[in-house]
Specification:
Structural class: mainly alpha
Number of strands: 2
Shape: globular
Order of helices and strands: HHHHHEEHHHH
Radius of gyration: 19 Å
Largest sheet: 2 strands, antiparallel
């Protein structure tokens, strides 16, 4: 198992490097394939030996080899987070065919978080394919986050898709722009991957975290009540909490 964890973490860090490309290029409508990775300051192509996840950042002391511009800490952060999530998925759910779609789900949430934080958008190119992948995978191989040794199944996934998308569509209509279409499709994706029960926990956790951050910003940063805060990162955090601790939180609630 130790070797498997090492492999999962290494794969996670390599994919995390690619996620940085997605985070930068997708909202700018750029190809995620061509051209190869370049320094955003001097536009020099980054050599393969300077693109080793985490390690290259340390070797280069966080600066471009050519122009010496600072490399954002976000790059190693995304790589490290994705590596951690991959190791955590293996620890939580064990080895099996469910691992690749759960890896993809965590990576999608990570990309959504940083894109929404920067641009206040959640791209359809991530959520719409994610809805179909989640629905298909849940029908055959994905476990239920609230009962890890049981298959989630098509029925729960379909109800999750409809309830997640439907609830947030209703919120978007009532709030008149306070909630975007990206959030609606994102929650449909979350429901497809994790079922209808996860919608309740994810929404509760996201609302709690969002409220705490909003209060903090008003008190310490002088932000007003009408300041727009992207909700995608909080929904992604809520979905991660549900994925890893849904079973324990449900048991805690039922036996409170």
């Amino acid at each position: 198992m130790t070797l498997l964890y090492i492999v999962a973490v290494l794969i996670g860090s390599v994919i995390g490097s690619f996620l940085n490309v997605c985070i930068y290029r997708i909202p700018r409508d750029l190809s995620i394939v061509l051209p190869s990775s370049r320094c955003p300051s001097c536009n020099k192509a980054i050599k393969p030996f300077d693109n080793i996840p985490l390690i290259s950042f340390l070797i280069l002391n966080g600066r471009c080899r050519y122009c010496k511009a600072r490399i954002s800490l976000r790059y190693p952060l995304v790589e490290a987070l994705n590596a951690f999530f991959y190791g955590a998925v293996l620890w939580r759910y064990g080895l099996g065919w469910h691992i690749p779609p759960l890896f993809a789900f965590c990576s999608a949430l990570l990309v959504i978080t940083f894109i929404d934080f920067d641009f206040q958008i959640i791209p359809d190119v991530i959520t719409i394919p994610g809805i179909f992948i989640g629905l298909i995978a849940s029908s055959f191989i994905l476990p239920d986050p609230f009962a890890r040794h049981s298959l989630l199944g098509f029925r729960d996934a379909a109800i999750g898709l409809i309830s997640g998308g439907g609830l947030f569509y209703l919120i978007a209509m009532i709030s008149r722009g306070g909630m975007g279409g990206g959030d609606v499709k994102m929650m449909a994706m979350v429901g497809a991957f994790t079922g209808w029960k996860s919608i309740l926990l994810t929404t509760f956790a996201a609302s709690l975290l969002g409220s705490a951050v909003g209060i903090f910003l008003m008190i310490f940063k002088g932000k007003g009540r009408k300041t727009k805060i992207p909700f995608g990162p909080f929904l992604a955090t809520g979905a991660i909490i549900t994925l890893f601790y849904g079973e324990e939180l449900l048991a805690l609630y039922l036996h409170r």
